[in-house]
Amino acid sequence: MLSPLTPFDSAPTCPHSLSQARDHARQLLEKYTGKPFFDNANYSNGKERMNKEEVSQGLEWLADRFFIIRYEDEALPSVEWVLEIARVAVLR
Q1: Which residues, 6 or more positions from 42, have their beta carbon under 8 angstroms from its beta carbon?
Q2: Residue 69's beta-bridge partner residues?
Q3: What pLDDT does 21 receive?
Q4: Which of 16, 31, 50, 81 is deepest in the core (most CB within 10 A)?
């Protein structure tokens, strides 16, 4: 199953792997904008947090460059499955 990148949905609970994807997306946005996502983040060094416009621009940047591939089965995916999903992602 393919999942669009939505790192800041306000779902009350989410699977651990989705939580990790959201954290990773947030960190990529912080690298892209050079600003922290959260107010008073202990790593912000006093920098102002990114605004909504910067988040939107950053999410567009992420969507243009990254595609999350999630395998929903408990078993490991086959190499063929991964290659087919990657081919579809490249064609999009």
Answers
A1: none
A2: 2
A3: 81
A4: 50
